[in-house]
Amino acid sequence: MYQNWRNVRYYLQHYALGNILPSSFREVSTNDPLAAESKLPQQSLTPPPDLPKRTDRLIFYGRPVVYGWPSTGGKITKAVTAPEILHLGLDRFQESSRAEDPAEEDEFCRKLRNIGGKWVPDGFDHLSIIMGEAGEEEREKVNTRIETGWPSSGRGVWGLKFNAEKDERKLTKKLPMLELAMSMDERCEVLEKIGGMFYENPEDCEDLW
User: Would you say residue 199 has pLDDT above 50?
Assistant: First the structure.
């Protein structure tokens, strides 16, 4: 049973942060880890026991995920697409490690926040949120996501803010289009199409800072 819950917890904490969970998973009883595990994407099972390491930057496990490690503690994480990886200045086809210099790492964390990276405190247990063991305010905070598009013109930013739990039905056929965008400009076009908002002054989009 421990192995089953280890798989479920790993998926929730390191993969699902950037995605909308299937409603079928949220209906599974916390007393049935085998059933819960069966609802996960097959590629997410049997996680390596040492991921993510505090040295990780970009890792490939199920899908590309980027981590930032701010000097203030915790981690910033986001499941990313190719344009986002390039926007961060990373190699799309090579896993990488964090910066050794704390100031350089903090600067990277700022960039990761700018594309919607979410800060997660040390020791945070995402499973308690999914299984309804947390208060409404905490659930709202954890489930809030934002997808962004930064135009190559350097003018403004597109943003789409949503709740990964409440907006599942509305966005299930829209968010996948972002996966197909081949550039940041295409991400901007998709975000405009699916209801994103344009901020001429990026600082007006408070969720990115």
Answer: yes
